[in-house]
Design a protein that fits this description.
Mean pLDDT is about 90; it is low at about 1-50. The strands form 4 sheets. The protein has a 22-stranded antiparallel beta barrel. A 4-stranded mixed beta sheet has the order 5-4-7-6, with no helix packed on it. A 3-stranded antiparallel beta sheet has the order 1-2-3, with no helix packed on it. It has helices at about 10-15, 400-405, 445-450, 510, and strands at about 65-70, 75-80, 85, 90, 95, 120-125, 135-140, 155-160, 165-175, 180-190, 195, 200-205, 205-220, 225-240, 245-265, 265-280, 295-315, 315-335, 345-365, 370-385, 415-430, 430-445, 455, 460, 470-485, 485-505, 515-535, 540-555, 560, 570-575, 580-590, 610-620, 625-630, 665-670. It is mostly beta strands and about 675 residues long.
Length: about 675
């Protein structure tokens, strides 16, 4: 492993910032006036009613600005405003998590706990820089602290299942202590067989998933607090209809420690974390082996430290500053296991290391009740290297592949990324607020985009170490308001991207491989979008309508960008009374013919669809609740436009990995 000292910036920043006074953010009571910075680390948040899902990220499907790309039964990949994968950051209780699969069988959102049901917040712009710049989007998942309400124990147990795929789910959490000092244990297990789509065809989607977590917290009378957590997740025998391989084993270990204390007008917080993921995928354990038995062993290790100071010197001014450091190590090796001794076929991630150090400062000011403004600046130093690039595999090496395809001589890369934002909000009559946000976000290309090095007899997939950083220049205008029983929010936005990292695939005539060759390049791109929501409620009945549309353009070639979802609309109608609730949901999407076939990401054009779902929750006793859901009531055959290309040889009719057909889900939850 390459050893070198962290930049002096870290030491200087930590030394200087620890001398500054600190604070906690003030709260506003006006329903239109939201927090300037919504802090989720170290805070208690209430978890609303959650439907019975094996992956909590599925709850985001009710937002038309978010699409979910399916490859199999697990590992749904969120697409936010037409951008996904490396452009969507995920923080799990403040921990930044990286996947261990080069083919993204394990996106960071697959690590969300189903036992503790975290709240999910989707960020689409730089309203704060404490978690890094927002390129395409950011998902902040927060697990609530236990609420004891004067008791010494609290917890819950859930047991449920689904008919389509014969799914089973059981999870539990129990805490002992008080609001000031507590210990909680939680865990869960869920499994399912292959489900059927609306046409009755089986979709390769079986999986087994188990998780366990122990955590504790302590807070003194002076509000000094300590929180710690350790967790493990084990996924077994996960099938993927959208891949040529399955994942017989994936293990994930998390460790987290957070400290904080009030000083003067605010508080400081220090968060340290470690995340390790071990992943195995192959083409023979869970399916009939072809001529060649291939297996990929991959790992990722993440270590991070984040220090943040918040101050509110007056009721009108908030400011924050902080520094964070993070190291990542990726390693993935493709093996030919036909013989008695496995042979290395490719160093897919050739010992890639990334060191990142960042510092930020931001401030917000209110001008009475009429307006408020904010601005922030962040600098990140990113250093990447492929430490095994010169290691030979057969007649070649990763460095030789980079040199042949991109004429690259040096593999190490250093990026100096400067991001920032400016925002303003004006209060208008009738409880309305007009918000304008302008931002610049700089993203360093990811490990796969720069360093993937797979070359076989049938195909090749080579990253580009010379890729420039991706610069997003965003502008967003939103109007939020409410009147009597109504509330609304229209949004228009633009994202001008310099040096957008485009993945493209050449045909056999261009690369002499039967399955083509995948490469990366920088282009200029532009994304434009509109969103709108309109809701009504009288306390018993409620209705909400939401739509989102995005257009992505490759400005170099005057073509469409890949993986851009079509116009999407979600209509809900809900009833609730005396703890009972029933909700009807109608999801609609137009057809999409603006695609980039050369990317290898779009499976082709897609037809529109309409899916009707029902959900319900009913208290049976003071401590027992029955939850149910009826998905895809009319048993339609459908798939989101952004889902993976179907590669299941036993279901050749499907273009993409289809969603489940009609599915009944039910669960009993006991709380105390």
């Amino acid at each position: 492993m390459r050893k070198k000292p962290l930049p002096r910036l870290i030491v200087c920043s930590l030394g200087g910032l620890t001398l500054l006074p600190l604070y906690a953010h003030g709260q506003q009571t006006d329903p239109v006036d939201q927090l300037l910075i919504q802090v989720t680390e170290g805070q208690r948040t209430e978890v609303g009613i959650t439907h019975i899902v094996s992956e909590p990220v599925r709850r985001l499907a009710s937002d038309p600005a978010v699409s979910l790309s399916r490859m199999g039964g697990r590992g749904l990949e969120p697409v936010i405003r037409g951008q996904s994968q490396e452009r969507v950051g995920v923080l799990l209780d403040g921990i930044r998590v990286e996947g261990a699969c080069p083919n993204r069988m394990d996106p960071p959102t697959s690590r969300l706990s189903s036992a503790l049901a975290p709240t999910l917040q989707v960020l689409t712009n730089n309203r704060t820089l404490r978690w890094g710049p927002v390129a395409g989007g950011q998902i902040v998942a927060t697990t609530a602290d236990p609420a004891f309400n004067g008791r010494t124990t609290t917890g819950q147990i859930t047991v449920g299942g689904t008919d389509n795929g014969n799914g089973k789910l059981a999870n539990a959490a129990a805490a002992v202590g008080s609001d000031d000092a507590w210990l909680r244990l939680s865990g869960g297990y869920d499994e399912a067989n292959d489900y059927e789509d609306g046409s009755g065809n089986e979709v390769r989607s079986a999986y087994k998933n188990a998780e366990g977590r122990v955590e504790g917290g302590w807070r003194s009378a002076s509000d000094v607090y300590v929180k710690t957590m350790a967790s493990r997740q084990e996924e077994r025998d996960v099938k993927y209809a959208g891949s040529g391989m399955d994942a017989p084993k994936t293990d994930t270990d998390f460790y987290r420690l957070e400290l904080g204390a009030p000083v003067a007008k605010g508080e400081w917080s220090l968060l340290a974390w470690q995340a390790d993921v071990d992943h195995i995928m192959d083409n023979f354990s869970l399916r009939s082996a072809g001529m060649m038995k291939m297996q990929t062993n991959s790992t990722t290790e993440t270590r991070g430290l984040r220090f943040i100071l918040d101050q509110s010197p007056t009721s009108r001014i908030d400011w924050a500053a902080g520094v964070d450091v993070e190291t990542n190590d990726w390693d993935a090796t493709l093996l030919n296991v036909n013989g008695a001794m496995p042979m290395t076929a490719s160093l897919m991630w050739p010992g890639v290391e990334r060191e990142r150090a960042g510092v930020f400062a931001e401030a917000f000011m209110r001008f009475g009740s009429a307006a408020k403004v904010g601005a922030g600046l962040r600098y990140d130093r990113v250093e990447m290297d492929a430490t095994k690039a010169n290691q030979s595999v057969g007649m070649s090496s990763p460095a030789a592949l980079y040199s042949k395809e991109y004429n690259v001589d040096a593999v190490p890369v250093n990026d100096d990324n400067v991001s920032g934002f400016a925002s303003a909000e004006w209060r208008l009559p009738h409880q309305q607020a007009l918000t304008l946000t302008a931002s610049r976000s700089v993203r360093s290309p990811g490990v796969t985009e720069r360093y993937i090095a797979r070359s076989t007899m049938a195909d090749s997939w080579i990253g580009n170490p010379q890729l420039d950083t991706e610069k997003h220049y965003k502008l967003e205008l939103a109007l939020k308001g409410q009147s009597s029983q109504w509330h609304w929010k229209p949004v228009i936005w633009m994202d001008q991207v310099a040096d957008f990292v485009r993945r493209y695939k050449t045909n056999t005539s261009g690369c002499s491989k039967s399955n083509g060759c995948t490469r990366y390049e920088n282009i200029d791109a532009r994304l434009l979008g509109v969103e709108a929501s309109l809701g009504w409620s009288d306390g018993t009945w409620s209705s909400n309508s939401a739509l989102a549309a995005v257009r992505g353009e490759n400005r170099d070639d005057n073509k469409a960008l890949a993986q851009i979802p079509p116009l999407q609309f979600v209509q809900t109608l809900a009833w609730q009374q005396q703890g009972h609730s029933i909700e009807a949901q109608w999801q609609l999407a137009r057809s999409q013919d603006r695609i980039d076939l050369a990317s290898g990401l779009d499976a082709g054009t897609s037809a529109g669809y309409g899916v009707f779902n029902l959900f319900g929750s009913h208290p049976l006793t003071r401590y027992l609740t029955f939850n149910w859901a009826l998905d895809n009531l009319f048993d339609n055959t459908w798939a989101p436009h952004v889902s993976r290309r179907n590669s299941d040889p036993f279901n050749t009719e499907a273009v993409r990995v289809n969603e489940p057909g009609r599915t009944v889900r039910a669960a009993l939850t006991a709380r105390w």
